[in-house]
Amino acid sequence: MTPDLNRDELHKNERHTADPRGVLTGIHFMDGDHACCEGALAAGSRFAAGYPITPSTEVVERFAARVPTVGGTFIQMEDELAASITLQGAVWAGAKAFTVTSGPGFSLMMEHIGYAAMTETPCVFVDVQRGGPSTGLPTLPAQADMMQARWGSHGDYEIIALCPNSPQECFDLTVKAFNLAEEFRVPVMFMMDECVGHMTEKVVIPPADQIEVVPRRHTHKPVAEYLPYGTNGDLVPEMAHAGDGYKFHVTGLTHDERGYPNMTPPVQDKLVRRLQNKILNAADRIAMFEEEQIDGADVVVVSYGITSRVAQRAIETARKQGLRVGKLRLITAWPFPETKIREQAAKVNAFVVPELNLGQMVREVERAAAGQARTFPVSHAGGGVHRPEDILKVIVEAGR
Amino acid sequence: MTDSVNTDLLNPVVNPVEAFLRSDRMPHIWCPGCGIGTTVNSFARALIDSKVDLQSLALVSGIGCTGRVAGYVKLDSFHTTHGRAIPFATGMKLANPKLNVVVYSGDGDLSAIGGNHLIHAARRNIDLKVICVNNLIYAMTGGQSAPTTPDGSTTSTNPYGVFEPAFNLPHLVEAAGAVYVARWTTFHVRQLARSISEAFQKKGFSFIEVISPCPTLYQRRNKMGDGLDAMKFYKEKSKVRNGAPTSEVGLTMTGEIVVGKFVDRERPDYQTLMGAQYTHALGDKYVEQPPVEQETVCS
């Protein structure tokens, strides 16, 4: 079975681009939070539900100001539990929707990330990461929610997570996040950090006709033929909206292709494996990374988000010292690009993994390397960024 | 339908509410004597009476015995997470205002874990019809105390008797801002259907509480008999007092059950206020949310 064939065949000749009314085309000097908001509008999102939390609030503040001028709705809910399910009600009514939060709020949203995964509700959760655990460091950066993004809700499921490292990417990858959500009918985690969110840089927003958007997999089937969770060889079902006339049922309970609850191990097995496989089978296609001087490198620095920009300095300094150092920046964190890491592991001596946590994605690098190359973490508890010399020290050690 | 008894086994009388049910999901999970099915019957009759467009009607439930209603009605129906039916319904209504959105859930789901959403949706006056089946207990999980369990009764988590004061739900939602508040029991099937029909005529947050028996857990543990005994109890103890001050309608274990329509008032709903505010603040720059493109489906 080739899960993506039908979709590709169907839409081979169709190219959908952004609605110009939501696109602020031009060259801007903008922070990452605002760029993320513009990305959501460009992607066609006209609905956000939020709850204020530093350092993410600027995203929805801008959305609240912008959306009444482009035709849409922002509602500030009473808490993150509400925000994270309100957006899903909007999706089933036909909207592209998202919410925005930071650590403590992200923790509260976990149940609804599971609900979105189980009901295959396409949506985006933006997490502008700050120091934790608990209230932690509200105004200071961390990258310590990376495992929570992947594993935070109970049960087996897969999500997609992207990590921007600049305001420009906060725009570009937010559009991508919405597109992936629609293509795979999955909640997409947009894993920013406080630095990227509050950093102001040049952001180029292209004309609407140069921004590709993926439309909803909205079913056109006759009522009698429509199965809400039937997949026709493609692992991603077509979606109906409330009011279309299908009189369909959606539940967080284990369900069959009709969407009806079914509490049996075979139905559970079929459903949960499909939820996993629709993402895992496409992992290599979803994987996005930036690489530099990988070929012939002895040491490869694997990083993401703001840390990749600090690591850049360390890498360049190491090269000046004559070390052969490659750079691999993860843009997709989940599904973890393990094919890429495994292939590289056979060719290099070591990976160095700096991140603003005490060791999260480094575990994945080590797992994918499977003993073929050594793995060196460069941990940081958050609240600031690494000093380039701390990363350099580990690169030198790894190169020995 | 005729008044005479139908004895033709090959052409049985079709129950008029069957068209509103997913017959392929029967039998349902509710216990003998449970009142939830009775409320669904009244709901279906209200849909017939009020001629609501079924295609644009969505029903949202939370978790629990009443949460299962979403699975049995032949409507666009959403069985959400525990306590969160109201915010899900809020998103649905705001994203497509043409939808008629009903929240159908239990007392524990709506007033305990979902209590915050209940008061804020009433405050905002979101145009939702909330039907709260109050069986005075957490039934799906085996008979634990709810915020509605009357003082003096016994539950699995208050084995020595409930001592927490219970919520008076009509009083709560009226104070928070609901425009329509009524209470009936499952003995009052016609009055309940009429209240649901009236709620469909209201624009804003409507709340209908239905006192409903739980013979398996609440009544058994409290030696209050079976489903039929509950009907006798409701008949004996209920007193219709339309317009009663909601501060005076709190429930006790064995006392009077005040039923009726308590609140019916006008207050602009959330979307009306939102549109007015944006028009006032933005003038020509305000762009109304365009209507949702619906699929036109053929059967």
The CATH first-level class of the largest domain in chain A comes to Alpha Beta
Domain module tally of chain B? 1
CATH architecture of chain B: 3-Layer(aba) Sandwich
Report the strand count of chain A.
Answer: 16
Shape of chain A: globular
What's the overall average pLDDT of chain A, rounded?
96
In spatial order, strands of the major sheet of chain B run 2-1-3-4-6-5-8-7
Look up the CATH topology of chain B.
Answer: Rossmann fold
Largest sheet of chain A: 8 strands, mixed
Structural class of chain A: alpha/beta
- Percent of residues in helices of chain A comes to 25-40%
Report the total helices of chain A.
15
Radius of gyration of chain B: 20 Å
How would you characterize the largest beta sheet of chain B? 8 strands, mixed
If classified by CATH, what would the architecture of the largest domain in chain A be? 3-Layer(aba) Sandwich
Task: Please give a structural write-up.
The complex is a heterodimer of chains A (400) and B (299). Chain A has 400 residues and is an alpha/beta fold. Helix content of chain A is 38%, strand content 20%. Chain A has two domains: 5-210, Thiamin diphosphate (ThDP)-binding fold, Pyr/PP domains (Rossmann fold), CATH 3.40.50; 290-399, 3-Layer(aba) Sandwich (Rossmann fold), CATH 3.40.50.920. In chain A, helix 2 packs across helix 3 (57-66) and helix 2 packs parallel to helix 8. Chain B is an alpha/beta fold. Chain B is built from ten helices and eight strands. In chain B, helix 1 (36-50) packs across helix 7 and helix 5 packs across helix 6 (169-176). Chain B is globular and about 65 Å long. Classes of the chains: A alpha/beta (400), B alpha/beta (299). Chains A and B meet through helix 4, helix 6 and strand 10 of A and strand 2, helix 3, helix 5 and helix 10 of B. Strand 10 of chain A pairs parallel with strand 2 of chain B.
